[in-house]
Design a protein that fits this description.
39% helix; six-stranded mixed beta sheet; 360 residues; flat; three-stranded mixed beta sheet; alpha/beta; 12 strands
Length: 360
């Protein structure tokens, strides 16, 4: 199960600079003019997880495979995009493919970088979300009320669609109207852009990151969202971090008075917004992190490794990560009685170290 994050925003708010920093390479054209990104740039980055190196040390594994996140750098949208302005519908289509939208808003003071339509972070947010809403409204208004002899499910679906239409017409995101999994599924089937979870990334000057917690709260109030939907990042700092070794990155962050890079914070927030979690496997061949939704059962988690594992699931050997480290691996936890055998109904927990038993 992979996580895909689409980076959106008006031109020149720092999207491509952030993308380049996240990938630790200049993969996107971060130029000081609008529409520098002609095609969406896609890159896969590892999810930072200090637990993997510790597990590898204990079990003697030489291969470490972290979970990954796919970042998609989508060209700057402009007013009128839903009607084809700028690069238009082509890029709205790319947003439909991602799991969560990372909306970059400009709050840095470098006036050498052209604003090109950017007025203020709050206004910029409204411009982008209006375009996404208008695109959704166009999709929704193409739906037709079922006629003749129709079943209960079709009636329920149409009732949900009409609610979505009313929401979009009132200028509110479809996400705010979704109440349950059935409604979320209908929104997904229709590829509605404003039904996706959003993280607002405020791109600030380097000297502001020290007060990121305070800024997060104040920006949440300005935008009318929760603090969990906001991340404070300096794309410039992330760019500088990208050129440093892991050790030097830690020293640089310490000098800045912050504990984590913007990448780490952004990925953690994306996991939270999508209710995702990681479980770990630790064998002699490799140590690996896997991504599942919160509330996934043991067979569903096994299926992430291989589809046949879910079908042929028997039991799962499960250990808490802290116990696995404390008692130095599988042998130690088994001797001390900390290894559990779990069945099909077991709900996976964050950081479970697991070994699946499957039949043929």
């Amino acid at each position: 199960m992979s996580l895909s994050i689409g980076i959106v925003g008006l031109p020149n708010v720092g999207k491509s600079t952030l993308f380049n920093a996240l990938l630790k390479q200049q993969a996107a054209l971060a130029a000081n003019y609008p529409f520098a990104t002609i095609e969406p740039n896609v890159g896969v980055v590892p999810v930072p997880d200090e637990r993997l190196a510790k597990l590898a040390e204990i079990v003697g594994a030489k291969v470490i495979k972290p979970a990954t996140v796919e970042f998609v750098d989508i060209a700057g949208l402009v007013k009128g995009a839903h009607e084809g302005e700028g690069l238009g519908n082509k890029f709205l289509a790319h947003i439909r493919e991602v799991d969560v939208v990372c909306h970059v808003l400009r709050d840095f003071s470098d006036e050498n970088v052209l604003r090109e339509g950017s007025v203020s972070a709050k206004t910029d947010r409204e411009t982008i979300e209006t375009e996404l809403l208008l695109a959704d409204l166009e999709t929704l208004e193409k739906q037709r009320e079922p006629k003749g002899k129709i079943d209960k499910l079709e009636l329920q679906k149409w009732s949900i669609i009409t609610r979505f239409i009313e929401k979009a017409r009132s200028g509110e995101l479809i996400l705010e109207e979704i109440k349950n999994d059935d409604e979320a599924q209908i929104a997904k089937e229709l590829n509605l852009l404003t039904a996706k979870k959003i993280i607002y990334v405020i791109n600030v000057d380097e000297d502001k990151v020290k007060d990121s917690k305070g800024l997060m709260v104040s920006w949440a109030e300005k935008l009318g969202v929760t603090a969990e939907e906001v991340v404070i990042i300096s794309a410039q700092i992330e760019s500088e971090l990208a050129s440093l070794s892991d050790e030097d990155q830690l020293l640089y962050l310490k000098d800045l008075g912050v504990e984590e890079s913007g990448l780490e914070i952004l990925i953690k927030r994306a996991y939270q917004r999508l209710s995702l979690q990681s479980f770990l496997t630790a064998g002699v061949q490799e140590v690996r992190a896997w991504t599942v939704r919160a509330g996934a059962t043991a067979p569903e988690a096994a299926g992430v490794i291989h589809t046949d594992f879910e079908k042929n699931f028997i039991k799962a050997r499960v250990v808490d990560y802290d116990d696995f480290v404390k008692y130095l691996g599988w042998k130690g936890v088994k001797e001390i009685g900390k290894m559990r055998l779990e069945g099909r109904d077991y709900l996976m927990q964050e950081g479970d170290v697991v070994e699946f038993m499957v039949g043929k």
